[in-house]
Design a protein that fits this description.
Elements lengths: L1 E8 L7 H12 L6 E12 L6 E10 L20 E5 L3 H13 L2 E5 L5 H14 L33 H10 L19 H14 L3 E3 L4 E7 L2 E7 L4 E3 L3 E3 L6 H9 L5 E2 L2 E10 H9 L16 E4 L2 E9 L3 E4 L9 E4 L8 E10 L13 H17 L5 E5 H6 L15 E3 L8 H17 L9 E6 L6 E2 L15 E3 L1 H4 L5 H19 L1
Parallel strand pairs: 4-5, 4-10, 5-6, 10-22, 18-19
Antiparallel strand pairs: 1-3, 2-3, 7-8, 8-9, 11-21, 12-17, 12-20, 13-14, 14-17, 15-16, 18-20
Helix pairs in contact: 2-5, 2-12
């Protein structure tokens, strides 16, 4: 028989199967020899007390062995089935394609960028030479922004769909089973490309198509219904449904929609900086110890503060991580963060941003590009302040709050380099002042956070899309165009890999109901 229990254990015990069996036997009041196997269902770190512990939800198998779990999925061949066009090969697009196969439709993915292997050369040019390829960068290409920015799988979007289904699909394509149990699952930039490649092979082997280096420039519409798309080369690709999953940085897609008189809207987003600390400072603050020790992972944090009626919050925190240049066009600075699977770099970084509403920015309230233009202006100011070649403007934390230019810049992970700058020249005053108030408050919440060893790097501006593509809540179709399914982060319906993947699945399920 199988029983479920919860245990609390020390860090050095959390991967010790014999220790966990002994705890289970004691809790169930059974002889140890009757405990044949245990399986971890959920695992989280609790650092609220003086001692850091793991909280574990276990399945305990008494007098029987655990049955092996098969995560493999039987994908049918859909080569000759009705096509569904998917624009974008990020998590929304890839999971939409996998769901197409399971639903009996042929996915045709159209991706402006390159496959994961070919993208590496363009990322090297960004990091080493400050050269941005507008079609292939940290945001554009197979796997989308998530592939080379870490693969964090934590989400609060548990009501939108089956999170476990998405995690199991990752495992089926090579991800470690730990992502099924960890409270904050994470794959790592070093492992994600192989997983994305395996997903591509699944789609192709099932009869799907993937077109790289192919840019959609027009939606073909007849009498209010989608009939397909036109590409930059002039080719027409026909399909009765189009999943538009182009990500939050595809500004030209928003321009295409406006050019075709398809409704889009300005959407609130958040903007600020990326803040980097030495990892040991975060570990000491969170784990209440001078040295983290070998049984605990590098620690993360999550901070939020209301300042003058606006939320200021940490975002996309990367323990043992690296700050990366994520511009999609020359002449702009955009920073993001990522971690390898081991999270073993000496720095911790996190976006720290201020919520921006439509009324915060001057301009025509009806202009759907109102906040996008604002976003672009700040990114261009950051580029100018850095001096070119993707050198980013930066300032030590206390210097930033006290309004002085830093005499020097600490060692950091941002490869193109950081130039000492007064970030007041880059950030609008109402964002700058809120950050100045929030950072000391964060320091009061987390001992050691407020320090001049921390570096602020500008700008963290692609937290979400500043444009929304509306859709019907029930059918998920655009209100004007039958068969057009705005999807994922770029359309304003997701905020990370898992929620984007779920939205891709949901859009295909909705399309299948109409196309069946």
């Amino acid at each position: 028989m199988m029983k479920e229990i919860e245990v609390v254990c020390l860090p050095e015990e959390h991967e010790n199967e014999e220790a966990l069996k002994a705890m289970a036997a004691q809790q169930l009041k059974l002889p140890l020899k009757r405990i044949q196997a245990i399986k971890i269902r959920k695992r989280s770190i609790d650092a609220r007390g003086r001692k850091v512990v793991y909280r574990m939800h276990l399945q305990v198998f008494v007098d029987e062995l655990a049955a092996p779990v098969n995560f493999n999925i039987d994908y049918p061949n859909v080569k000759d089935k009705k096509p569904i066009i998917i624009v974008g090969a990020g998590p929304a697009g890839i999971f939409a394609a996998l769901q197409c196969v399971l639903s009996g439709f042929k996915p045709i993915i159209i991706e402006r960028g390159k496959d994961v292997k070919q993208r590496r050369r363009d990322l090297a040019n960004i990091n080493k030479q400050g050269l941005v390829n507008p079609e292939s960068n940290y945001c554009f290409g197979e796997g989308g922004a998530g592939t080379y920015s870490d693969g964090k799988l934590y989400t609060r979007s548990t009501k939108r769909g089956d999170v476990n289904q998405v995690l199991q699909m990752f495992v089926a394509h090579g991800a470690d089973e730990d992502i099924l149990v960890d409270a904050r699952p994470h794959i790592g930039t070093n492992k994600l490309p192989q997983i994305i490649t395996a997903m591509r092979e699944t789609i192709l082997n099932a009869g799907g198509e993937i077109l790289f280096d192919t840019k959609v420039t027009e939606l073909n519409i007849s009498f209010g219904k989608i009939t397909g798309v036109k590409t930059a080369s002039g080719e027409t690709i026909n399909g009765a449904a189009v999943i538009l999953a182009t990500g939050h940085s595809a500004r030209d897609v928003f321009e295409m929609l406006q050019r075709q008189n398809i409704l889009i809207e300005a959407k609130p987003f958040a903007l600020g900086v990326r803040i980097e600390h030495p990892q040991h400072i975060i570990d000491k603050a969170q784990y209440h110890c001078d040295v983290r020790g070998p049984y605990l992972p590098p620690s993360y944090y999550s901070l939020v503060e209301q300042v003058d009626d606006r939320g200021v919050f940490s975002f996309c925190m990367c323990p043992g991580g690296i700050i990366a240049p994520c511009s999609t066009e020359p002449g702009e600075i955009v920073v993001n963060g990522w971690s390898p699977s081991k999270r073993n770099n000496p720095f911790a970084n996190s976006g720290t941003v201020v919520q921006i509403n439509l009324e915060d920015v001057a301009g025509d309230e009806s202009d759907p590009f109102k906040l996008l233009k604002f976003q672009q202006q700040v990114e261009q100011l950051a580029f100018a302040a850095g001096g070119g070649n993707l050198v980013a403007p930066g300032q030590r934390m206390i210097d930033f709050v006290e309004g002085r230019i830093s005499a020097d810049i600490p060692k950091n992970s941002y490869l193109p380099g950081v130039a000492s700058t007064d970030l007041k020249e880059v950030l609008p005053s109402w964002i700058h002042k809120r950050l100045q108030k929030a950072l000391p408050a964060f320091g009061r919440k987390m001992k050691g956070y407020y320090t001049n060893e921390a570096l602020l790097v500008g700008v963290e501006s692609r937290t979400s899309s500043p444009v929304k593509i509306p859709r019907d809540r029930e059918t998920l179709q655009h209100p004007q165009i039958q068969g057009l399914y705005p999807c994922g982060e770029g359309a304003g319906y997701a905020g990370g890999i898992i929620s984007a993947a779920i939205d891709g699945i949901n859009c295909v399920v909705a399309a299948a109901k109409i196309m069946a």
